[in-house]
Amino acid sequence: MILDQLSQAERYFNLHPGFAAAFAFLRRSDLGQLLEGRYEIDGDAVYALVQRRPGRSRAEGKLEAHRNYIDIQFVACGQETMGWISTSACQQVKTPYDPAKDIEFFADEPTAWMAVRPGEFGLFFPADAHMPLIGEGEIHKVVVKVRVASS
C-alpha cells in the first residue's frame, strides 16, 4: 500500500508499465467535470472509474481485495479515510472471491487508517485489503484499475 500526493506520482512509474498512463489520466485538466462511469485508458489493462458516493461510517465500510488489478484510488473532492490490512492477515471471508468482478470481501478490521485528501491517492496491490469510502458527505473519487499481468 502506498499513500502519496499526485504531484509525486513519477516515483512509482517503474513499479508497473501501466502506471504512467494511469497517472496521466488522473492529471487531466477536466477530471473534476467527468461524469460518473468507466473511462478506458488502455482497454481492460488500464481503465478508470469516476465515482461520486456518500461517505460511510467505519461500521458500514466494506473491506475488499482484488487479485487481478491494482487500485489507484484518487480523491478529487471531499475527504476520505481508507482502511488497510494485509490480505495475509485476513481470517474472515465475508463474500468469496468473484473472478468475474475481481473482488472478495472480508469481515476483518483494518489495522491502519489513512486520511486521504484531495490531490492524494492510495495505491493498493493484490496483497492489500482496503476499506474505501469512509467519511462524511459526498466523496468524488477516481479509481484507476491497472491489471497486474497481461493475459
Q: How would you portray this structure in words?
A:
It is a single chain. The protein has one helix at 19-26; strands spanning 2-5, 37-42, 46-54, 63-65, 69-77, 80-86, 93-98, 103-106, 112-116, 120-124, 128-134, 138-147. The protein has 151 residues and is mainly beta. It has one domain (2-147): Jelly Rolls (Sandwich). A six-stranded antiparallel sheet has the order 1-10-5-12-3-2, with helices on one face. Strands 4-8-7 form a three-stranded antiparallel sheet, with no helix packed on it. It has a three-stranded antiparallel sheet with strand order 9-6-11, with no helix packed on it. The radius of gyration is 14 Å and the shape is globular.
**Helix count from the secondary structure assignment:** 1
Question: Quick one: biggest sheet?
Answer: 6 strands, antiparallel
Uncertain stretches of 5 or more adjacent residues: none
Mean pLDDT score: 96
> How large is the share of residues in beta strands?
over 45%
CATH architecture classification: Sandwich
Q: Examine the coordinates and then state which fold CATH places here, giving the name of the CATH topology.
A: Jelly Rolls
Query: What is the molecular shape?
Result: globular
The CATH class, by name, is Mainly Beta
Strand tally is 12
Q: Helicity, in percent?
A: under 10%
Strands of the largest sheet, in order across it?
Answer: 1-10-5-12-3-2
User: How does the helix and strand content classify structurally?
Assistant: mainly beta
